[in-house]
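Support case: user asked for a sample of complex input and structure output to validate their parser. Sending the pair below.
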Amino acid sequence: MEVRLTDIRKHFGPVRANDGITLTVAAGTIQGILGENGAGKSTLMKILSGFQPADSGIIELDGRLVRMRSPADAIRHGVGMLHQDPLDFPPMKVVDNLLIGAPGRIVPRRREAAEAVAALAASFGLALDLKAEVGSLTVGERQQLELIRLLWLGARVLILDEPTTGISADQRGELFDTLRRLAAQGKTVLFVSHKLEEVQELCMRVAVLRQGRLVGEALPPFRVDNLVNMMFEREVSLGDRYACAPGKTVLRLSGLGAEHGRIRFEGLNLEVKEGETIGLAGMEGSGQSLLLQTCAGLAPPISGRVQLVGADLTGKTYRQFKRRGVAYVPATRLEEGLIPGLSLAEHFLLTEKKSGIFINKERGRRIADERIAQFNIKGTPANTVESLSGGNQQRALLALVKPGSKLLLLEQPTRGLDVESVIYLWSKLKERCRGREAIIFTSSDLDELLRYSDRILVFFAGRISGPFQAASTTVEELGHLIGGGSASDGTGPCVAVDGAAVGGAGTDVAGTPVAGGLYD
Amino acid sequence: MDGTTLVIGLAGVLATASPIVVATIGETFAERAGVINLSVNGTILLSAMGSFVVALNTGSLFLGFLAGAFVGAVVALIVAFGSITLRQSQVAIGFVLTLFCRDLAYFLGNPFMGEKGPMLPVRPIPLLEDIPILGTMFFKQDVMTYFSFVLIVVAWWWIFRTRPGLVLRAVGERPEAAFARGARVSVVRYVYTTLGGALVGLAGPMFSLGVKAGWKGTISGLDGLGWIVLAIVIFGAWNPVRGALGAYLFGLLQWLSVVLQPHLQSIPSQVLQVAPFPLMILTLLFVNVGNAEWVERVLAALPEPVRRVVAKAIRALRVVQPRSLGIPFERD
């Protein structure tokens, strides 16, 4: 289906989110929509998918003028949108989730629907567990589910908003294959992203937005510097790899095991030194977050010990971990990290040492001004956190973690951020490493893991392999390990560090011992 | 106590608990849609009084029950209008309404205190009533008790097996996603809040024209039951079947407090009378014990096979509320 947008305008107060955008996408095209955080990509897509009405402008599908009053309207016209955070119902069964919003009789025929959807999924080589609860699936699986659901409802234009955030490399490969197949069937795909390499790999055309305007279009072969120039109006350099000189041991895990739901790992031995950065790789939901939570005292270990600078903290509470210098930064910024409705100044006051029972507004503003400058946050002390863009929320979250911690635990710290924000964030994090703070972080971005970690642990179905030296591991090797391959049959030998680090055999989900990567 | 007395006693529990069952299911509908209607206690009192007066003056039980449902629906509509359309606090509106309706019931009902009104007759179901034990318990009841049995099944089926039920759950869980799927969030909330209110309103006449016939003002013994209903909805995990079991448990506790009184002379009768209320709170605590952090720690220390079984059991008991409960929906 051909999509034609003409002179789309939308403003929020004084901000012109879309300032007269005109764009035509031919049927069967995978069109990339590129732009930094806040460039107006999401607004444009929300207008096309009926979530927000435009102030003015025309939408035509196959030459027919359409009005989208609601997302349900849009899907009736064949336009479906896949959100960065899948708009589904976590406590419900997958089948129920599919049936909500699907037309049909009062008593739905569950089995028929399940079979139809399963067949559709299979035709794209995807396997959906229709009996599972949505909440037990990984973000990647939920995304596949949404994609299949939209196709099942007859979507011919698919909008994907930052779809690769939070999914594994394998799932990304599957997604891209599916999208290519859809394009070949004549469906139109709008792929919103700020990740240049993905756009390069997948898209047939790219439109670049900046400050609410369409600043240019490009056809393959795409030149990265050209696209970056269009996005930022200047050049952005990745900077050099920073390696730290590790010092004393900060964290020692011995024979650690933990379990949450169906995720479980056992027998993990690891020593983390001052100033060191450990990356946790693996498909989302393979146990990386669980390890972070165990190290933060949020999840009690079922076996083994956690020691922090010599003190045994096994089974102690989060407060005690925190008091000893562990800082945990969760992936969901607005749910767990920040408090919607409170201003930046109030956030900083909350984390400061208490002085009396009254709020010292002046002090809050002062601290906020200081940190805003220091962390380059685009906002004022009076701004509520939810009014900030994703990148700025992440900066604010990091600014809340006071310097002088011993161990930073970061869950997906750069999720949803554009290149420039990622570079900035890591420059700040590496400053902390120089200040002898150790970092453990999770990411689904292999390049990020290799660039910023000193050592990498790889999670696969509850088995942990490594640690591998990041400097001497390639993207291909890492991708192979994440997919469940072992290092020995990989494309090349990975270098593992101290032999005592990981005790080889882990235990898989079902509880039977499996080969533990390197040391078997 | 011999067998017959026990069976009749249990049949009585089913009958006396039936208004609580109906009110619980009504409130379950409203809360599944994301609206807490806190006016339940006042609604039951006002509808009990109103329907009694209507039945007394018209001589029609049917009109009495209709009046009860009408009162409940109107009160619920006020809650819905205030919280959905005006986006005001559901708790504040419901709380004020519950106090207002209670006092209104006592005030308007004053002239009719102690009058003898009509009462719902017991209608045994032929053949079925002859089944030993079960016949007496389930098939020698009044019409509204039968209605409560049917309602449990129908409400469960509607919520968990039909398409509109799915939409109802979706709206209460994640209204923004439900909206994206084409649900009319506000309409759904209005409909189920009003319907739920009408069911709560039926509980009033089920007392005043049934199990606690008559209107005796402040000593009617109905004040407080509405609050128990709100607790049972939570105990029932917003599931009509589990909610009904909670209502029967409460009815059983009330019955025991009466039956055991002669045998427990040393305990003041007032203690036994109020005992069901704190016992319900304890039950609620027990059901939700899995949400406590210390439980996870204790569990982690158990041997593996035991831990798995216990963890599973606790997870099954645990109650998770509809995520958007009490939160107004705003389309951005």
